[in-house]
Design brief:
Length: about 300
């Protein structure tokens, strides 16, 4: 569980830096690097590794089925809130931390055999949704109006999406370039987590009833719905357990960084990412225990 200690440590570094004489745009600068350098490098490395396995089709389908369900619930839940709050929740609720947190916790709870299912859920689901859905949300809510041409333009100019298209067309990067891409990719999680920690604040900026609803939706309702979907699809037991746990992961760090960088309720976005990670250390083992007893 050293990975979790590292996550919490990075969040604490960000919190401590709030007391330092940091530049006014410190968090925005970190997020800018994450979006334009770290995330594209990760896309170039990971997308060519995607390999589809029909035996676990449910694991691939469930994040895409959960996406419109969660988006609909968020829109209904935020009908009396500002649009920037809705935009923040549309980013951080459907998109989970299915890799950096997902891999170590699923390995711990379900064993090595579950890791291929984790990679399928993450790469076919969350990873692709970040570029496609995430960029569409940003385009829609940054402008404040629903303009199809503007959304399409923003989508096509969103750096991770452009790199995604390139990676799908090109395939695996040259061997000589991979160590350098790996170095750039390795900056994604530390920088994004420090930025989230730096944005964490308890105070009047956060609507705590909404925060608690969103956290419950992310960590409890999503895995419950995923369980129903996967059970209905007749998914194999190891894949079902993995898909449910992946669906109950805390909010994706990069989605939180994108929300903060776009000015979408930064305090709320940071809180859902940061505190969500801590709370998930309780909810995920509990979900695994309940599945073990029920299945």
């Amino acid at each position: 569980m050293e990975q979790f200690a590292f996550i919490i440590g990075l969040l604490l570094i960000g919190v401590l830096l709030q007391k330092a004489p940091a530049p006014a745009d410190f968090s925005k600068s970190l997020n800018f690097f994450v979006i334009y350098v770290s995330l594209p490098a990760t896309v170039l490395l990971q997308v060519p590794k995607i390999h589809f396995d029909l035996s676990a089709l449910g694991v691939v389908i469930v994040p895409w089925l959960l996406l419109p369900i969660m988006a609909g619930i968020v829109i209904a839940m935020t009908r009396n809130h500002p649009l920037h709050v809705r935009a923040a929740l549309l980013l951080v609720v459907p998109l989970g931390n299915t890799s950096f947190v997902g891999i170590p916790i699923v390995h711990t709870l379900l064993g090595e055999g579950a890791i291929p299912y984790v990679l399928m859920y993450d790469q076919f689901g969350t990873f692709l949704m970040l570029s496609l859905y995430g960029s569409a949300v940003i385009a829609r809510y940054e402008s404040g109006i629903f303009h199809k041409r503007l959304i399409l333009k923003k989508l096509l100019l969103f750096p991770p999406f452009l790199i995604l298209l390139f990676a799908l067309g090109w395939g695996e990067m040259p061997q000589a370039a991979q160590p350098y891409l790996q170095t750039l990719s390795s900056t994604l999680v530390p920088l994004a987590l420090v930025s989230v920690g730096y944005s964490l604040k308890f105070g009047g900026e956060i609507d705590y009833p909404l925060f608690m609803k969103a956290l419950g939706l992310k960590l409890l309702v999503m895995p419950l719905i995923a369980f129903g979907i996967l059970a209905a699809l007749g998914t194999d037991l190891p894949a079902l357990k993995t898909g449910v746990l992946e669906s109950g992961m805390p909010a994706m760090i990069t989605a939180g960084a994108l929300a903060i960088a776009s000015g979408f309720a930064p305090a709320l976005s940071a809180a859902l990412v940061g505190y969500g990670i801590v709370v998930s250390l309780v909810t995920l083992p509990l979900i695994a225990y309940l599945m073990e007893r029920l299945l």
